[in-house]
Write a structure and sequence with these properties.
It contains 17 helices and no strands. With 314 residues, the chain is mainly α. Helix 15 runs parallel beside helix 17.
C-alpha cells in the first residue's frame, strides 16, 4: 500500500509530497498521531506547502503532547497565509490560542490572540483573546483595567463577569465616569441588572463622585504641567483624562510622566498607546506598545493588533 510506496524509494520526487500528505491525513483520521506526524513531516519537508497539511501536522504534534512544535507550525501557517494574501482559517488561530492556554503559556497565548484580533477582528474573537490573556496573566487591578478597556472599545464582553471585573478594576471612586459607561453598557446588554446590589452600589458611588471629578479635571491637568509636578501627579491626571476620552491631553501628560524618575514605564507606555489609538495615531501607538515589557507585554500585544486593524485618520 501507501506505506510500501513511501518506503520503497521508488516514488519520483513530484509524487512523494502529495502521497505522503495523503498518507498523513489518513493516519490522522485514524487517530494514529505518531504515524500522521511522520508522513505529514515528510510531506512538509519535501516542499508540500498546503497550509491544511501544515496545520494538520501542528495538530498531530499537539495531540502527541509536543505543544511547542505544534504552535510553531500554526504560527507558520498563519504568517504564510497572511503573506500569500489567503488567510489561514480562523479556527487554526483559535486552536493555537487554546493550546497555548492549556499549556499556561501567556506569551504564546498573547501571540495567537494578537493574530486573531488582527486577521479576524470580530468582537467574539477579541473577547476570547482578552479573556484568555487575563485568565493566564493573574493581573492586578491596573493591568486588568487595560485588558477590559479593549473589551469595552470593541464591545466584546461575553458575560456578566466581564462587566463586573471592569467595574472593580476602574473603581467608581477612582474613575467614576468610566465606571458609569461600563454599567450602562452592561445594563443595555441585559447582562447586568440595575437591582443587583453590586451594580446599584457602584452606580451610586460613581454618580456621587462624577460632577466633582469632572470639575477638577482642568485644574488637575494644570498642576501636572507645572515644572515641579511629581510623576504621581502627572500620571494621575493623565489617567483621569484618558478615562473621560480626553486622549490628546492624556497623551501629552503620559509623555511627560515617562521622563520622570519612578515612573512605571510599562503601564505608562500601554496607556500612551491607548491614548494614541483614540486619536488614530496608529503607527505611533504600535511603536509605543511594542516597547512594553514584562507582564503587560501580553496586553500591549493585543492592543497593537487592534491598532493594526483600525482605519487611518481621514
Amino acid at each position: 500500500g501507501v506505506k510500501a510506496m513511501l518506503t520503497s524509494g521508488k516514488l519520483d520526487a513530484e509524487a512523494l509530497p502529495r502521497i505522503a500528505a495523503a498518507a498523513g491525513q489518513l493516519a490522522y483520521q485514524a487517530g494514529d498521531h505518531g504515524e500522521a506526524q511522520t508522513y505529514l513531516r515528510q510531506a512538509v519537508d519535501a516542499g508540500y506547502s498546503d497550509t491544511n497539511v501544515v496545520a494538520l501536522l501542528g495538530e498531530s504534534y499537539i495531540a502527541n503532547g509536543q505543544v511547542n512544535e505544534g504552535l510553531a507550525l500554526f504560527e507558520k501557517a498563519i504568517t504564510d497565509g497572511r503573506a500569500s494574501g489567503t488567510l489561514a482559517p480562523d479556527a487554526w488561530y483559535r486552536r493555537g490560542l487554546l493550546a497555548a492556554y492549556r499549556a499556561k503559556d501567556l506569551d504564546r497565548a498573547a501571540q495567537f490572540g494578537a493574530h486573531l484580533i488582527r486577521d479576524y477582528p470580530e468582537p467574539a474573537n477579541v473577547g476570547i483573546a482578552a479573556t484568555i490573556v487575563r485568565e493566564l496573566g493573574v493581573f492586578g487591578s491596573q493591568e486588568t483595567l487595560d485588558v477590559m478597556r479593549l473589551m469595552g472599545r470593541t464591545n466584546s464582553y461575553a458575560e456578566q463577569r466581564d462587566y463586573v471585573e471592569y467595574i472593580q478594576a476602574a473603581d467608581p471612586r477612582r474613575l467614576p465616569g468610566e465606571t458609569l459607561k461600563v454599567i450602562e453598557a452592561g445594563l443595555a446588554s441585559g447582562k447586568l441588572s440595575a437591582s443587583d446590589s453590586f451594580v446599584a452600589d457602584a452606580r451610586s458611588q460613581a454618580n456621587g463622585r462624577l460632577s466633582a471629578d469632572r470639575a477638577s479635571l482642568d485644574s488637575y491637568a494644570g498642576d501636572a504641567r507645572k515644572a515641579n509636578a511629581t510623576e504621581a501627579t502627572i500620571s494621575g491626571a493623565a489617567d483621569a483624562l484618558l478615562s473621560y476620552g480626553r486622549a490628546a491631553e492624556a497623551e501629552e501628560l503620559y509623555k511627560l510622566a515617562l521622563a520622570k524618575p519612578g515612573v512605571d514605564a510599562d503601564r505608562t507606555l500601554t496607556r500612551l498607546g491607548i491614548a494614541q489609538i483614540e486619536q488614530r495615531k496608529l503607527a505611533e501607538a504600535q511603536e509605543n506598545l511594542g516597547k512594553v515589557t514584562g507582564k503587560r507585554a501580553s496586553i500591549a500585544r493585543l492592543w497593537a493588533a487592534y491598532a493594526a486593524r483600525q482605519p487611518a485618520a481621514q
